Amino acid sequence: MRLIKQRLINILLFCMMFFAFIPICSAEKLPEIKFDDTSYNFGIAGPGEEIKHIFKFINTGTSLLEIENISTDCGCTAALISNQKILPNGKGEIEITFKTGRYEGKQKGTITIYSNDLNNKKVSLIVEGEVKRDIAVIPEGLALGDIEQGKSINNTVKILQLSSEALVINKLEFNKKYIDVKKSLFEDKNSRGIKLDISLKDNILAGIFNEIITIHTNLKKYPKLDIPIWGNIIGGIQVIPSSFSFGKVLKGVKFSEYITILSKDKKNLEGLKITCDLPFIKTNLLPDKDNKSIKIELYVDKISPSGKISSQLTIHTNDPLQKIIKIPIYGLIK
């Protein structure tokens, strides 16, 4: 009995010594695929173009990453241009090629990447954009917002060449007093055409600014293109808001709103005159005690007819650079 007991003790000691020399198991090593981005928008392209883009990824895991398969559901092809097996912290690249061919309109395709990343076995990459024919103007208009008087503004408009017929601009028409336009050829990654560098001069009078650049081309389908430009030139006197809408007003109910006039350089604003094209839109001047700002009460008289309101408020000021300010007014009387 004593012998058996001693043997059991020896076996227990041996097991304790054996397991003491076994290292503690570390966390399981796994690959992990991580893309810099998973979508690409090529914007606008023409027929017969070849769109290319490279999706980059990295193995952020702790073991070897393997790209097992790549499939597409669109008219594009995908190729692994790096190694199929990526070490930890290693980088890889997948090149996508989309031939626009006879496609037209908005396009969206998915490329699926399969790997040995157990937590992310497949990753979807998106390629999208629009295929147009003949010509495209980007942007179709320039909304400049609020601009301080005396500052010059620069913008760019691109006219994309989307057909086999070479695009030629025969003539440009614009208000040379306030605008300067220079044209040049351009070629980007996925597009080409004519670029217009548009500059607004610093002599534009304060108030709502509306101009149009007219482009005359050699294309029979699009012989003339108009690019509208609009904004609000803010001078020494600022009107808030620069355009006004009543919304819906019930007929026979007096409904008032307010417009604020501010003097940025603290000039005296006494003696302003306000008129409106519509006789049933009434105004009251409410100057502050220091005459540095004025609040205009604007209301629709109860004798007003029903229908849409489309008019403008004309504010006469004592500022030599901003003698007249016009504010568009909109609304609906029910």
Automatic annotation (TrEMBL):
Transmembrane segments: none annotated. This is DUF1573.
